[in-house]
Specification:
By secondary structure, the chain is α+β, with helices and mostly antiparallel strands. It has a single domain, classed as 2-Layer Sandwich (Heat Shock Protein 90), CATH 3.30.565.10. The protein is 22% helix and 28% strand. It has a four-stranded antiparallel sheet with strand order 1-2-4-3. It is globular, with a radius of gyration of 16 Å.
Length: 113
């Protein structure tokens, strides 16, 4: 996901990639957001399909398996992956993973110092 954020950057702008995590109830939600070329709303679901590329090999190298593999891994761990994007503005890919009970406790622990 990070490699995609870097690869699909705008050629005439400084690339900005933000990575964040948020704990909500029993899940950790990770987000990777960029200011790259973006994806048309009609193509957002396609990027998770195996061997699906939105660009030619001459435009961008790759096999079209990266995000499909990410989706499979996230779902095997009982999580969910989603994409929001605006063509020409950027993309945000978020995925959630369930917290282990011990991790959920530690995430809610407040250090008294």
């Amino acid at each position: 996901m990070i490699a995609n954020a870097i690869k699909f950057r705008k050629k005439d702008a400084l690339s900005i990639v933000s990575i964040s995590v948020e704990i909500k109830k029993d899940f950790a939600i990770f987000s990777i957001q960029d200011n790259g070329i973006g994806i048309a709303k009609s193509d957002c679901g396609k990027v998770f399909q195996l061997f699906t590329k939105l660009h030619t090999r001459e435009e961008y190298r790759g096999s079209g398996i990266g995000l499909a593999l990410c989706k499979r891994i996230v779902e095997q761990h009982k999580g969910h992956i989603d994409i929001t994007s605006t063509l020409g503005v950027g993309t945000c890919i978020s995925f959630s993973l369930p917290l282990h009970k011990k991790a959920a406790f530690l995430a809610s622990y407040k250090n008294p110092v």
